[in-house]
Amino acid sequence: MLFRSMEMMFRQQAVLKHPELLYRMAYTERKRDRQLILPVYTRAGKDYESLDQRRWNEFSRNYSKQYPKHAREDKELTLSAIAKAADMDGYYKSYYGLYCQFTHGSFRVMAGMLKGFDSEDNQTVAACVLGALQALNTGVSVEVPELADLWQRLLNLPGRAQKR
Predict the structure, then answer these.
(1) Burial letters for 36-64: b for 16+ Cβ neighbours within 10 Å, e otherwise?
(2) What is the distance between the alpha carbons of residues 56 and 27, in angstroms, rounded to a whole number?
(3) How far is residue 42 from each of residues 2, 34, 49, 52, measured CA to CA in Å?
(4) How many Å apart are CA 38 and CA 87, to the nearest integer?
(5) Quick count: other Cβ atoms within 10 Å of Cβ 110?
(6) Which of 4, 58, 6 is nearest to 30 (CA)?
(7) What is the pLDDT of residues 70-116, one digit of tens each?
(8) CB neighbours (10 Å) of residue 7?
(9) Each residue of 127-144: pLDDT tens digit?
(10) Residue 157 pLDDT greater than 60, yes or no
């Protein structure tokens, strides 16, 4: 699922450029998990509210110890905003939306009307791999020689007008 790799790339790049967004990403995941998990616990007669609040308080405490300079804002963050923070909104507005059509089984995909985008697959996969390498290069100090050159070569490919 290429679009999931793109989501990870957006998140990695956004956190590299704006580390403080990590907390809001966690908050957003928590909110979505609550929507899915709360009904299950409720049907089982279990108290999810207390468990969730206890876990969130612990996470928030640990986060503030690990990253004392980061603002902890309990505000949801959309994937679109994450891509924009990563300076990859061009990918989000084009390739990501296109690949989501295949995953969500749109009528156009079932009717074979979205064929012919195979040439974009290799470039999109390359961008995801380079994004992961960049995260490793920055986050855990793994040396990735010529990373900037590889990005530039990808961006200079014919027909590549999207901003990374």
Answers:
(1) eeeeeeeeeeeebeeebeeeeeeeeeeee
(2) 9
(3) 35, 11, 10, 13
(4) 35
(5) 10
(6) 58
(7) 999 999 999 999 999 999 888 888 777 776 655 545 555 555 555 65
(8) 18
(9) 666 676 776 666 666 677
(10) yes
Q: Which residues are within 8 A (CB) of 38 and not within 5 positions of it... i.e. 6 or more apart?
A: 48, 49
Amino acid letter, residue 112? G
Instruction: Of 32-41, 54-63, 151-160, give the lowest mean pLDDT range.
Output: 151-160
Q: Could you give the CA distance from residue 54 to residue 32 in angstroms, rounded to a whole number?
A: 17
Q: Give the SS3 label for residue 86.
A: coil
Report the predicted TM-score, pTM, of the whole model to 2 decimal places.
0.67
- Helix or strand (DSSP H, E) at 125: helix 118-139
The pLDDT, as a whole number, for residue 146 is 77
Using left for φ > 0, alpha for ψ between -120 and 50, and beta otherwise, residue 106 falls in beta
DSSP 16: H
The Cα 157–Cα 136 span in angstroms is 24
Q: What is the dihedral of CA 79, 81, 119, 162, to 10 degrees?
A: 180
